[in-house]
Amino acid sequence: MGRSQRLYIYMLIGFFVWFLIFISQTLYFASFPIHHYCWYPPCKNIFLLSRIPKKQQKIIHSYDKSLLLRIHHQPLLQQYESRHVNFVGLAKPKTSPNKYLIYTCDQPCGGWGDRTRKIVGAYLLSLVLNRTFIINMTWPCPITHLLEPNFIQWNQTIKHPSKRTSLIVNNLTSSDRSYGEVLLWNNIDIIYFKVKDLSYYSLLLWRDDFYRVLHLQYGLHRSTLFIHTAFTLIYELLFKLKSHPQSHMNEISEKIQSKSLYCAHIRIGKNPSNPNDIIFPKRERMNTSVIGFLKKISKLNELIFISTDSEEVQLYARKKFRSRLLTIDGLIRHIDRSGKKLACDGLEKTILDFYMISRCSALVMSKSAFSFWANMRRLKPYENLYLYCDGIKTIRGPGDYDRYPYVLSISCYKCLSINGSNPSCEDPFQGDVTGKSSLLYAPCLTNLRGRKGLFPATHCIKLVVRSRASIPIQYMYRTCGRDEADDNGITRASHCGFLKLDWIDKNQRLRGCLHICDKDA
Fold it and tell me: What is the pLDDT, as a whole number, of residue 50?
């Protein structure tokens, strides 16, 4: 018998032995109750389903099929089918019925772009923590007037909330300390989630126990979980327009039909339409540059849409594009930087603008969370995408966007009062006084210790100091400052102690306090 023949026989024998072992193990494990060896959720689900009466199984399967069919016919969700996402689990998670995580916005909590990304993060955190997710957004008015659940029921009510244990969470990071705090929430019934940013989001990606839940139970691989990828999936599962705003979108859609739509988000900052907004440096020519660029890349028969924070920009665009310009009626207001009534009046237009951008064939963004996340709802978000950042930049991916820093500045009052000599600068603060030159510096620029030049401020500040002379002199000085690593640490709110003011006496130590002027400056 040749060598090759012997090898062939050995392979047959090996396969036969493996087959016998496989059969014997299958029969052996089948003799035990299934929960003794079925550790994994998919396996357990199969077992539980087998115990459900067949009529009820048909109802469950019918619900799942109906849900998946609806998802398949929504293009923004359909694109996630190839990622093997567990849509049924995400749409109807089997979370604890007595534990809740409530995204809460009952006072100013950011613009629409900021809010939506925080909602996405909060929902994913609720899945990890096995909590029912609810949205309570009432600033500037209830969001339920304009949006309703699409697949995820986020508008549930809690019976007798006052009788349950609760915790308000304002800050959360990805640190070990924050991770430990999250684990301690297990004994709390209701978490009111008011976190202002996504600095905790890394917990979902890199803490193995958190990631394992999202991956194994909901089919969310790490590549899908990065926020710019997960955003559209979760947003679309959460929200759809109510019938009234949807009718407005339908009217505009009829005008578009098969035509190309060229869009821009022109946020210029503080202007007569948004007097309480911040000032953005280097956006003085943004309106003419962006509108000129849209005229250059579009054809005469193609439509234009401009989302802006300025009525003047809207009028300028109408003058340049005439009948080509599509508009959404409504008040132009920043929903977080206007009075409650004005912000509420502008909320519907803000949300419709957000939805409109998803229809754009090409888009010029501002460096703004609003246009960034609205762009993520385009089917091909990095196709024909541009950013205005002191000129028009082409964006081909998230890395391109991050190359251009978000530069902003604020307006602050600058004034000095010595022993009450300038009443308009004293407390209570009066701001600009009629008949006098303005005390407001816009933008307010400041020095940094050990560095040359002036830099955009991050805080308006007030210094109140007293000299140590036998007859003390009190100085009240309003100006601006900037947090820059360890330069001054302004964000610790207020500091009291000894200060040196170069413009008084470099060698003299004055006793006083530095405060952030959140209200009056």
Answer: 43
Q: Reply yes or no on whether the pLDDT at 191 is more than 70.
A: yes
Angstrom distance (rounded) from CA 483 to CA 446: 11
Domain count, the chain: 4
Rounded CA-CA distance 412/280 in Å is 14
pLDDT computed for residue 195 by the predictor: 96
What CATH number does the domain containing 280 carry?
Answer: 3.40.50.11350
- How far apart CA 263 and CA 211 sit, in angstroms, is 37
Residues 6+ apart with CB under 8 A from 319: none
Which residue from 377, 383, 380 is spatially nearest to 150, judged by alpha carbons? Answer: 377
Helix (H) or strand (E) holding 357: helix 340-357
DSSP helix/strand/coil, 152: coil
Domain-located, residue 98 = yes
| Domain of residue 42, residue span | 22-51
Whole-angstrom distance, CA of residue 507 vs CA of residue 501: 9
Residues 102, 157, single domain; the answer is: yes
Q: What is the pLDDT of residue 39?
A: 33
d(CA 224, CA 210): 15
Q: What secondary structure, in 3-state letters, does 394-412 show?
A: ECCCHHHHHCCCCCCECCE
> Domain boundary residue among 241, 276, 304?
241
Residues 364 and 499 in one domain: no
Cβ neighbours of residue 482 under 8 Å, at least 6 residues apart? Answer: 446, 448, 455, 456, 457, 458, 459, 488, 490
Q: Please list, in sequence order, all residues whose beta carbon lies within 8 angstroms of the beta carbon of residue 448, skipping any fewer than 6 positions away.
A: 455, 482, 484, 487
Residue 13 located in a structural domain = no
186 and 295 housed in the same domain: no
CA dihedral sign of residues 203, 206, 209, 213: positive
Residues 45 and 133 in one domain: no
Q: What is the pLDDT of residues 458-486, one digit of tens each?
A: 778 888 888 877 788 888 888 888 765 33
Q: What is the structure's pLDDT at 413?
A: 83
Tokens of 394: 């082409």
Cα–Cα distance for residue pair 17/11, rounded to 1 Å: 10
Mean pLDDT to the nearest integer, 150-168: 95
Q: Are residues 122 and 155 in the same domain?
A: yes
How far, in Å, are 251, 265, 266, 479 from residue 413 at the CA level? 46, 30, 27, 6
Helix (H), strand (E), coil (C) string for 271-313: ECCEEEEEECCCCCCHHHHHHHHHHHHCCCCCEEEEEECCHHH
Q: Assess contact for 237 and 126: CB atoms under 8 A.
A: no
312 lies in some domain: yes
Q: How far is CA 366 from CA 12, 286, 346, 352, in A?
A: 68, 9, 19, 17
Residue 514: other Cβ atoms inside 10 A: 21
Three-state SS at 364: strand
**What is the number of other CB atoms lying within 10 angstroms of the CB of residue 235?**
21
Q: Measured on CA atoms in the order 431, 432, 433, 439, is the torsion positive or negative?
A: positive
Q: What is the mean pLDDT of the segment spanning 314-324?
A: 96
